[in-house]
Design goal:
There is one protein chain. It contains 12 helices and 20 strands. The chain has 473 residues and is an alpha+beta fold. It folds into 2 domains: 262 residues, SGNH hydrolase (Rossmann fold); 141 residues, Jelly Rolls, CATH 2.60.120.1360. Strands 3, 5, 6, 8, 11, 12 and 14 form a 7-stranded antiparallel β-sheet that branches. Helix 1 packs across helix 11, helix 4 runs parallel beside helix 11 and helix 7 packs parallel to helix 8. The relative contact order is 0.16.
Length: 473
C-alpha cells in the first residue's frame, strides 16, 4: 500500500470513529459541535475563500497558528487537528511550521511528533516568569546555551506526514554575535544563507529536503546564544499548522513577548486561541481585564495581517484543588465562555464552545471516569486530547467543505453606442483612428465646477482605531 493510500485510510478510520465516540460518551453534546460565527464576518469569509481557492487550484499557502498553554504545549490536541487536515489534503502539505525544542531543557515536555536531543545543559526561560531573564519571541519560551559548544537535534517522529523541509529559520540572539551552523543528512553542514540581524533570524536554504536537523551553537567560555524558536518550512504550496504553547501561560504572559517580528515570519491566516484556563484558575478572575488583554493580543496579530481570522476556544470545564484529595468546580469557565462570544462578536471571529461540547459545568468528572481526563481535573489524557482534536476538526471541516464562494457578478452585455459621431459617420473598427478635429472654442464657455474629492487615508496614515475598530481603549 502506498504512503498516500495509507494516510487516506487512516483518515477515514479516524473520521468513521467520531459517531462511535459520541455513542460511547453520551455526556458529549455533539449538537453543539460547530463553529459559531456571523456569516457576514469579513475575516472568516476571507479565510474560507482563500482555503477554497488553494484546495481547488493547488496553489497558494494557508498558515494556521494554534496558541495556548499546557493543552497546546503537550502537542496531542493540535497535532490531532494537524493530522486530520494534512491527511485530508495530502498534496497540500507545506512545512511543519514554527516549533520549539522544549525538551532540550530538563523537565520540559515535548510534543510527540518530533523528538529533541540535547546533551549539554541549557538555561530555560518562559513567559510565565514574572521577569523573563532573556527576550522572548512568539513561542514564549527560550533556551540559552552558554560557555560550551551545544548541539540541539530535532528529529521527525511522524512517519505518516512527509513535510519535505528545505528552508529552516533559526530564531535567536547572542550578545557576542554567535552564528549557529546547521547539520543534516549524513553530516552535511551549512552556514546560514542569510542573516537577518534586525529580526534575529538565521535562514538556511537547503538543496535537498530533510526531515531531521541538528543545530550546532559554537559557544565558548563567556559566550551565550538564546534560541527562541525554529521554523521548518519548504518551497511547496500548501498548509502549515503552527502550534505554540507554554505550560501555565495566560494571555498577559504572551503580551510580555516580542510578537510582531515572528508573526511577520509566519503571517497567520487563521489563529486558534486556546488561552484562558490559567487566566481563570484563581479566585480573583477579572473578566473585563481578560477581555481587554485578549483584544491587545488580537491587535498585535491583526497589525501583521488585518485579514487574519480568529477562532476562540472556550475553557474546558475544570476543578480547583481545595485539599489533599478534595476539589471544587471552577465556575469561572462560565465567564470565559461568555467573554469568548463577546470577543468573537467584536473581532468578527468564531467560537468553538468546548465548555458546552464537553457537557457543561461539572462534566469534567464524567470525562475523568471515562478515562479522558487526568486526576487533576484540569488536563486530559491522550485519548481525551485526541477526542477533542477529532471534534474540533469535524467542526472546522464542516465549514471548509460546505463553503460556497460568492458568484462573480454577471457580465453586462455591451449596448450599441448611441453617441453622435458627426457627419453620419459610422464607428470605425477597433484599431483604426480618425484624425482629430480642430478643437472648437465656445464663445461663452461655462465655468467648470470642481467638486471636492473626498479625503482618503492610506492604511499607513490611519489611526489604530480606524484600522482595528475593536481596539480596547
Amino acid at each position: 500500500m502506498s504512503k498516500t493510500k495509507a494516510t487516506l485510510l487512516a483518515l477515514a478510520l479516524m473520521l468513521a470513529a467520531l459517531p462511535l465516540q459520541a455513542q460511547d460518551h453520551p455526556f458529549l453534546r455533539t449538537d453543539a459541535n460547530q463553529l459559531h460565527f456571523d456569516s457576514t464576518s469579513a475575516t472568516m469569509q476571507a479565510f474560507l475563500l482563500k482555503f477554497h481557492r488553494m484546495r481547488t487550484t493547488g496553489q497558494g499557502n494557508i498558515s494556521i497558528m494554534h496558541i495556548g498553554g499546557s493543552h497546546v504545549q503537550a502537542g496531542t490536541f493540535p497535532h490531532r487537528i494537524r493530522t486530520h487536515l494534512l491527511n485530508a489534503y495530502p498534496t497540500l502539505i507545506r512545512g511543519r511550521g514554527l516549533l520549539f525544542p522544549y525538551s532540550a531543557a530538563a523537565k520540559c515536555n515535548n510534543p510527540a511528533d518530533y523528538k529533541v536531543h540535547c546533551l549539554e545543559k541549557v538555561t530555560l526561560t518562559r513567559n510565565v516568569y514574572k521577569q523573563p531573564e532573556y527576550p522572548l519571541g512568539l513561542c514564549g519560551i527560550a533556551v540559552t546555551a552558554h560557555d560550551v559548544p551545544t548541539s540541539i537535534q530535532l528529529l521527525n517522529n511522524e512517519p505518516m506526514i512527509d513535510y519535505g523541509v528545505s528552508r529552516i529559520v533559526v530564531l535567536g540572539h547572542s550578545p557576542q554575535g554567535i552564528v549557529p551552523t546547521l547539520h543534516y543528512s549524513d553530516h552535511h553542514s551549512t552556514p546560514p544563507s542569510y542573516i537577518d540581524s534586525t529580526n534575529h533570524r538565521f535562514v538556511y536554504n537547503l538543496r535537498q529536503e530533510v526531515d531531521s536537523i541538528e543545530i550546532m551553537i559554537p559557544c565558548h567560555e563567556g559566550e551565550q546564544f538564546t534560541l527562541t524558536g525554529v521554523m521548518l518550512d519548504s518551497r511547496h504550496s500548501g498548509i502549515t499548522y503552527h502550534s505554540i504553547g507554554v505550560n501555565g501561560a495566560a494571555v498577559p504572559d504572551y503580551l510580555k513577548c516580542n510578537l510582531c517580528s515572528d508573526l511577520r515570519l509566519i503571517r497567520p491566516d487563521l489563529v486558534i486561541f486556546g488561552i484562558g484556563i490559567n487566566d481563570a484558575h484563581g479566585n480573583d478572575f477579572d473578566s473585563v481585564a481578560f477581555k481587554n488583554n485578549y483584544l491587545r493580543l488580537c491587535d498585535s496579530i491583526r497589525s501583521v495581517n488585518p485579514q487574519c481570522a480568529f477562532i476562540f476556544i472556550t475553557n474546558n470545564d475544570c476543578y480547583r484543588k481545595t485539599g489533599r484529595r478534595s476539589y471544587s468546580v471552577n465556575r469561572n469557565g462560565l465567564q470565559v465562555q461568555e467573554v469568548c462570544y463577546r470577543l468573537a462578536k467584536i473581532t468578527g471571529g468564531a467560537v468553538w464552545d468546548q465548555f458546552e461540547i464537553m457537557g457543561g459545568l461539572k462534566s469534567m468528572e464524567k470525562w475523568q471516569k471515562a478515562g479522558l481526563a487526568q486526576r487533576d481535573k484540569v488536563h486530559f489524557t491522550r485519548a481525551g486530547y485526541q477526542l477533542l482534536g477529532d471534534l474540533f476538526y469535524e467542526a472546522l471541516s464542516h465549514e471548509l467543505n460546505n463553503y460556497q464562494p460568492p458568484k462573480p457578478p454577471a457580465a453586462k452585455h455591451a449596448e450599441p453606442s448611441m453617441k453622435h459621431t458627426g457627419d453620419n459617420q459610422k464607428p470605425l473598427p477597433r484599431g483604426l483612428r480618425r484624425k482629430p478635429r480642430t478643437k472648437q472654442v465656445s464663445i461663452n464657455p461655462t465655468p467648470s465646477v470642481q467638486h471636492p474629492t473626498p479625503a482618503t487615508s492610506t492604511p499607513e496614515k490611519q489611526s489604530s482605531r480606524e484600522q482595528f475598530p475593536y481596539i480596547s481603549e
